[in-house]
Amino acid sequence: xxxELDRSTRLVSTGDLTFDTEVSDAxxxxxxxxxxxxxxxxATALGQVLSHADPLTVTAHFARPSRPGPGQIVCEVIKAxxxxxxxxxxxxxxxxxxxxxxxxFTDLSALRGPSNEAPGKPPPIPPIERxxxxxxxxxxxxxxxxxxxxxxxxxxxxxxxxxxxxxLGGWIRLADxxxxxxxxxxxxxxxxxxxxxxxxxxxxxVPTLELTVHVRRRPSPGWVRAWFRxxxxxxxxxxxDGELWDAxxxxxxxxxxxxxxxxx
Amino acid sequence: xxxELDRSTRLVSTGDLTFDTEVSDAxxxxxxxxxxxxxxxxATALGQVLSHADPLTVTAHFARPSRPGPGQIVCEVIKAxxxxxxxxxxxxxxxxxxxxxxxxFTDLSALRGPSNEAPGKPPPIPPIERxxxxxxxxxxxxxxxxxxxxxxxxxxxxxxxxxxxxxLGGWIRLADxxxxxxxxxxxxxxxxxxxxxxxxxxxxxVPTLELTVHVRRRPSPGWVRAWFRxxxxxxxxxxxDGELWDAxxxxxxxxxxxxxxxxx
Lengths: 264, 264
Hints:
- 2 copies of one chain form a homodimer.
- By secondary structure, chain A is mostly beta strands.
- Helix content of chain A is 10%, strand content 41%.
- Chain A contains 3 helices and 17 strands.
- The first copy, chain A, has helices spanning 4-8, 35-49, 182-188; strands at 11-13, 18-23, 28-29, 32-33, 54-62, 69-80, 84-93, 96-106, 116-117, 132-133, 147-151, 167-174, 208-215, 224-229, 232-234, 237-245, 251-260.
- In chain A, helix 2 runs antiparallel to helix 3 (182-188).
- The longest helix of chain A is centred in the N-terminal third of the chain and has 15 residues, at 35-49.
- The interface between A and B is large, with 52 and 52 residues.
- Strand 15 (232-234) of chain A pairs antiparallel with strand 9 (116-117) of chain B, so a sheet runs across the interface.
């Protein structure tokens, strides 16, 4: 049986560069699909039209909220190179562009060149059995059932209405047992509660304007270590930087998004 | 007299969404224009067709090397919102797309919301009079004459053939006295020697695949403090993270690019 994520990124080809799809309600809050899920959906389409299957650097710009239900994905091939290819996937619903993914794809297994990993080890995340089970998912979330989270103890200040460092990390995996791969990393890069919640007094909403993920390695099976940090919340705008590490302790993805704090 | 950067981003409108331009040879190495300059060129076009003038988050995907000389910029408006607008600018030369900029624009002065700047102060860069004047520009560089750089002492290991931390920082300004603004920050985000040069043994070339800049504030006049770091060079692929701070000590931009080390 296919996993929930695979069902939620299913595409029906309707031409060389177009697909019909059904935006899932499984990865959202209050009917708004999550940005990481949408990035994975767009990247799935790109992986089918480009000559390389692995996302290397992909950027989603979110123009308007997507809605669960039918949509059309329209792709464009910008470049078909030997080691990299580049393209765009746009989701249209009711004739309006909801988001677009612009991406450079490659074969991650074929990359060759020097390596030098300065930090060389994952961020300070205790073993999984010493981390905390999930905090309550926000009202209206369907997302909470689809991912399992284990938080670094003492970091989820927002859950008790306190303030603290805008840093959140721990362990994450898909609840149905689907193992991580380059596509699911795109989802996992936006599946964590925003660390900015620790830095504001009110209950807020943090919609993503733009999300970029660099996939750096094919992940090994198992839990993924996640580390998210916001350093600069300025007049309601923030960056959120993420690192994902696989079960073997290798860095597998870096993410950065720009989001706006909203009280609406 | 207009500044060199303003001359190098001059556009002649040829339609609602199209411009003729002349890609400058003033910001390149061995005839290849710099990615930050090209990002500024694309963003200049977007600022003219969108309803907001300031880049907030802009991403350039570089498909093929651009060439000094004539080109056409073709724009598309994705969204014209009240507080943000979104669009794409593509450079065509000889009928081929060289790069595209996808961006969300806003009015930086009109942003409102909570602030929380955790680090709150610039990276450890000594006063400018204690920093070092520019190292020798690489052969074929026209860039070196257009920007003034002052390096943190003891960090430019690459210049003497040594290895060291993949961190480089200091002070930067445009040599002709043009003061920083949101557009020039896009150039400054890619105007520093790559810190990855400190982490490899050979003389290498580090072409950018994708460059994203978040402009967070309108910069004050004067020198800009710059801090660039590569943490993960993996099989020849690297991320380069940048911070730009203005003369008043405020963070004004964050950048991240993905690049590939090349010995060619």
